[in-house]
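Q: I'm writing a short explainer about ABC transporter permease for a general audience and would like to include a description of its predicted shape. Could you first generate the structure from this sequence?
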Amino acid sequence: MFRSHDAGRRSPWAILELIFHASVRSVRKTHGNALWGLLINILQTLLLVIVFFTMFAVLGMRDTAIRGNYLLYIMSGVFLFMTHTKTVAAVAAAEGPTSAMMKHAPMNPVISIAAAALGALYTQVLSLSVLLYGYHAIVEPISIDQPVRALGMLLLSWSTGLAIGMVFLAIKPWSPEVASIGAAVYMRVNMVASGKMFVANAMPSLLLRLFDWNPLFHTIDQGRGFIFLNYHPHYSSIGYPVRVMLACMMIGLMAEFYTRKHASLSWAAGR
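A: Of course. Here's the predicted structure. Afterward I'll give you a sentence or two in plain language.
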């Protein structure tokens, strides 16, 4: 039987230092050059903004947007979508109890999860800061009505991504294929189901039911309410994604604890 080392006996500062170094490793894991990896992430986000801007213009959907800065409306959806999905992918791909890294004290799966999530958050916050500042300085000044609460919705999108990623991570030691396919399907579905292309207040009730199951739909809609002075969300809430986050996090933690008790390095030997 494989048993991970318990980091709970170590000092909090030592654990935080370990999480920091693991987060740096998680960020650099995607690319050897940290600056180049950040640039790639910025280009991916910028490309998605350009694609939706072009699609809205071609399909004549610009009139359905919120009154205010049109590009900021698009970016508000894309930023939260990217933060959520990148966090799900990072946490789902984190090293679990059967990883060789767990043999090195005091590493454990919880530190691995925290490092993957914080690495994703760092990359996304830095990317959106660069893009927002560049747009504000080069194109035109932008104004956010309630920036602190808007940032809170970004963090809530990240938190729900962390919790949902933990569920996929807990499944991975038992069935890697199911976990990988499930995470990929969830992220592809969110391309549409996140509601970043729509305004919830303008959606018919029949169409609204197809989206309101998704916590990301609620955080994006609520975030736009805090970004734009003239938009007040009526069909989304902050409480729903919080409940989903807590439920998925409890499921993920319980499943991870059970897996850690029963995990064996021989599981991964043939994979």
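A: For your explainer, you could say: The chain has one domain: 12-263.
Q: Perfect, that's easy to follow.
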